[in-house]
Amino acid sequence: MLLNFDRLGWWKYVLLGITLLTAAFLLLPIVFIAALSFGSSQWLIFPPPGWTFQWYSELFADPRWLESALTSLKIAVIVTILSVLLGLVTSFGLVRGSFMFRDALKALFLTPMILPVVVLAVALYAFFLRIGLGGTLTGFVISHLVLALPFSILSISSALEGFDKSIEDAAVLCGASPLEAKIRVTLPAISHGLFSAAVFSFLTSWDEVVVAIFMSSPTLQTLPVKVWATLRQDLTPVVAAASTLLILLTIILMALVAVVRKVLKQ
Questions:
Q1: CB of 92 within 8 A of CB of 187?
Q2: Exposure string (b/e) for 242-264, b if CB count within 10 Å is 16 or more?
Q3: Which residue of 48, 65, 140, 245 is surrounded by the most CB atoms within 10 Å?
Q4: CA pair distance 213, 103, nearest whole angstrom
Q5: CA-CA distance, 132 to 147, in Å (whole number)?
Q6: Which residues are bridge partners to 217 per DSSP?
Q7: HSE of 184 in the Cβ direction (CA atoms, 13 Å)?
Q8: 8 A C-beta contact, residue 253 and residue 262
């Protein structure tokens, strides 16, 4: 039931104040990080004594940071493609299938979302060490895919459940094959779900740090792992610059998701 704010009287201002304080509590650390990335001090001091772009210059001039960023990008792109493809096939089976234990299977696919990340990371680390995938690109992709796939399944399943299957059946009656009807009718209709699945899968892999710490090696590190390792060694503002760019990319992609979903649903 929606609240009628006109009947709340002065309570609506209390609710508004609580909302603003909560938003400030969540957003102020991000603002501080962004401000520190432009500070002229070589230490993380707030407020900064001056302003400079020096730390961004050092960030882009350091090949170790660039290599970590490229590694993160490579893994995230591969995970995104695999997550959308597997999520699409799985969603068709879960939404349109009529087999036993379908709900249990769906719950199993969504388990990585509710399982503590540390527990999952330790389990993957121990398993990959036994099969020789620890510290490898393949190990990174598989471990990130385990985390990203539930988001893909949720996004695509939600879009598929909102699609009228009779439209696809009509295309089949008009002479299209079942596969052709799915490709030319169903997939365009659920494109907003596919797009959301792709973005959430990318961000899940791009921002992941706990599993990545267990999977990393001296020669293979993602950008969040590089940030974590640098923080343990030196509190340089370069870390703040890298963190700001990570946050900025996340905000841009989330805003893009909202805009695209709104456009596609019109």
A1: no
A2: bbbbbeeeeeeeeeebeeebeeb
A3: 140
A4: 33
A5: 20
A6: 220
A7: 12
A8: no
Q: With CA atoms as reference, report the closest residue to 110 among 128, 132, 130, 90.
A: 90
Q: How far is CA 154 from CA 113, 198, 255, in A?
A: 11, 12, 19
Longest pairwise C-alpha distance within the chain: 72
What global pTM score does this model have? Answer: 0.81
Cis ω before 47 (30° cut-off from 0)? yes
Per the CB < 8 A criterion, the answer to whether 224 and 210 are in contact is no
In Å, how far from its chain's centre is CA 12? 34
Q: 124 exposed, middle or buried (CB, 10 Å; 0-12, 13-18, 19+)?
A: buried
Please check whether residue 79 is in contact with residue 205, taking contact to mean a CB–CB distance below 8 angstroms: yes
The tokens 């959430």 sit on which residue? 200
Which tokens sit at 51? 């302003």
Q: What percent of the chain has pLDDT over 90?
A: 12
Helix (H) or strand (E) holding 125: helix 117-131
Rounded CA separation 85/87 (Å): 5
Distances (CA, A) of 142 to 112, 134, 146, 209, 217: 13, 11, 6, 15, 16
Return the structure tokens found at 148: 């990203």
| Per-residue model confidence as pLDDT tens digits over 115-171 | 888 888 888 888 888 888 878 888 889 999 999 999 999 989 888 888 878 888 888
For domain 56-265, the question of CATH label 3.60.20.10 is answered with no
pLDDT digits (tens, 9 = 90+) for 198-215: 988 998 898 888 888 888
CA distances from 88 to 177, 178, 194 (A): 19, 16, 8
Q: Which residues neighbour 169 within 8 Å (Cβ) at sequence distance 6 or greater? A: 181
